Amino acid sequence: MNSKSMSPQESLELIGQIIEEARCRISENGFLFFLWGALLAFCGIAQFALLHSPWKAYNYYPYLLTIPGFLYSWYYSVKRAPSRKWRANLVAKTISWTWTILGSNMMFMGFFYYSILKDALIPTLLLLTAIGVIITGLLIARRSLFYSGLVVNIIALGSYFVSLEYQPLLMAVSYIFALLIPGWKSMRYTKYSSR
Amino acid sequence: MNYKDLNPILHAPLRLAIMSFLMTTGSSDFNTIREITKATAGNLSVQLRKLESAGYIRIHKSFKNNYTHTTVELTKNGIDAFESYVQTLKKYIE
């Protein structure tokens, strides 16, 4: 780093550059967004297909895939994340804990509260997802993610009025926009910025 | 031009980079800060000590796998000083 005297403009540019670099590091967890976006979109589409087939009774089976997904996410975060040394990072830690708590609650509700929530299950899961996406968007200052979260929030509220047969499709679309696309963009951004 | 109103502790590229990074992360380790700032270990140590003397950061040393592990944490004074520095910068630019 150059030790010459800086003008106020140069100082502000330096601050902006370092903050952007810090955010760039945080976006390394784009892989988990991508993974869960793809997994849940697949579950939604598969459930929708099963609901409109002779195997209607097995429509919840695709969600069993979330168990290996959850275990792999845990393994990835603890052992394989390229940013292990970033554990001390306050923003990354907040994001990680937010999703761990939201994800655990979502899995718990999906597997054990179905009989209570019934038609309200998917909208509730979408609301929890929206909260996570909005918080993540605010913390890493990605406006597109913040707005995706708001859109999912609106879809979630609207889906309380949609029949159970079509809710999985709405869920798949929401997860594609809220998790899969931002995750893919984040992974691509990190790849290019690290060159 | 002499920017005498600007806090001299922060108005230095490496120290400003360290503080900007810590403002985003709260705390970090020595190697990460070195990677971000692209500074040499010696220079970084000197600048970190200056920031610590000013009360802007806290430095913790521990052992991890038989190696010294240095963690740097931003203090409340550091946050206040950084915010005040940015306000002063804005006044110069306006």
Structure, explained:
The complex is a heterodimer of chains A (195) and B (94). The model of chain A is unreliable at 82-88 (pLDDT under 50). Chain A starts with 7 loop residues before the first helix and ends with a helix. Chain A is elongated. Chain A has helices spanning 8-26, 30-51, 66-80, 90-112, 114-117, 121-139, 143-159, 167-193. The longest helix of chain A is centred in the C-terminal third of the chain and has 27 residues, at 167-193. Chain A has one domain. With 195 residues, chain A is mainly α. The mean pLDDT of chain B is 89. Chain B has a single domain (13-93), classed as Orthogonal Bundle (Arc Repressor Mutant, subunit A). In chain B, strand 2 (57-64) and strand 3 form a beta hairpin. A 3-stranded antiparallel β-sheet of chain B has the order 1-3-2. Chain B has 94 residues and is α+β, with helices and mostly antiparallel strands. Chains A and B meet through helix 1 and helix 4 of A and helix 1, strand 1, helix 2 and helix 4 of B.
Strand order of the largest sheet of chain B: 1-3-2
Question: Using CB atoms under 8 Å apart, which protein chain pair has the greatest interface?
Answer: A-B, 25 and 30 residues
Class of secondary structure makeup of chain B? alpha+beta
Instruction: Supply Rg of chain B.
Output: 14 Å
Note the beta-strand portion of chain B.
15-25%
So how many helices of chain B? 4
Helices and strands of chain B, in N-to-C order? Answer: HEHHEEH
Alpha carbon gyration radius of chain A: 19 Å
